[in-house]
Write a structure and sequence with these properties.
By secondary structure, the protein is α+β, with helices and mostly antiparallel strands. It has helices at about 35-60, 75-85, 140-145, 155-165, 170-190, 205-210, 270-275; strands spanning about 10, 15, 25, 35, 90-95, 100-110, 110-125, 125-135, 150, 215-220, 225-235, 240-255, 255-265, 280-285. The protein folds into 2 domains: about 10-165, no CATH class; about 170-285, no CATH class. The strands form 4 sheets. A 5-stranded antiparallel β-sheet has the order 8-7-6-5-9. Strand 1 (about 10) and strand 2 form a beta hairpin.
Amino acid sequence: MLISDNIYYCKNCKKVVPSIEDLLFVEDGSNLSFCSEACIEKFYSPLIDYFAGKIEKKRKDLNIVDEAALEALENPTFVDRVLHKPDEIWRLENDLKEEIFTFISKVNHNGEDIHLMALCFVFNHTPSFVLALTATSNDYFVQDFQVGEEVESLEDYHREIEDNSILDPEDFELIELKKSKLLAEMMTHRKEFDIPFEDFSLYMDYLRPTIETYDELYEFKDEDGDEAFAYFKAFEKSGVSFFYIALCTRIEKGEQSLIVPIISFPTIDGDLSNSYKAGKLIDGNKLAH
């Protein structure tokens, strides 16, 4: 047979592998998979560079570029502690439901209390890939890592999500498949001048008002033939006008009908915004194209 359902490939080098067991995963709830550690590092290198730049700038602002606490990063016991027995765990999620976890541990190094901080992806309740690792004795610097929501443990957090959701694993799998398709399509059509992907987390607060007080709402069939919705709302941030777009699907659970966001994002590109105004305008005044 020339092709089959069981085709797996590395999302970085595109190498085809014979089995899903030959792939490596680093993020819970994501189908991004890789054939080797080298491909993982290459794929995420822009994100690593981004956080390295942010940390460097903050250190310069606080005048702690060469602080002695950085020597603690050479101690494997300290590093193992922050990754596997942290004192604090913080979770930050963007509108695409992508998660980054911050692990923080307090240790005594050369008679001084310092903190180690690690930004990580998590897979199967454990840190799977470290995006940034640093140490400091500066409390203000530590506070920059204490963002999002604090969770007691990774196991308890994921158990709480499962217990509180009326969606079942099949629903989550469907959502992830749709998200992958829509995200790939959106990233393909984005233009260089548009809002950078890494800044999407700065627009998280616009999702709720977009859905609750939209300017336009379109109904259409997605490529799977399922009922889908596109919500549009115009905003202004720092003197720049933009559209926020939320693409959703309907999931029926017994007597309940749920509108579930799949992806959402900001854009200053009118062409990109208009490309999602397909199907039937079911509510709102049609904005000028």
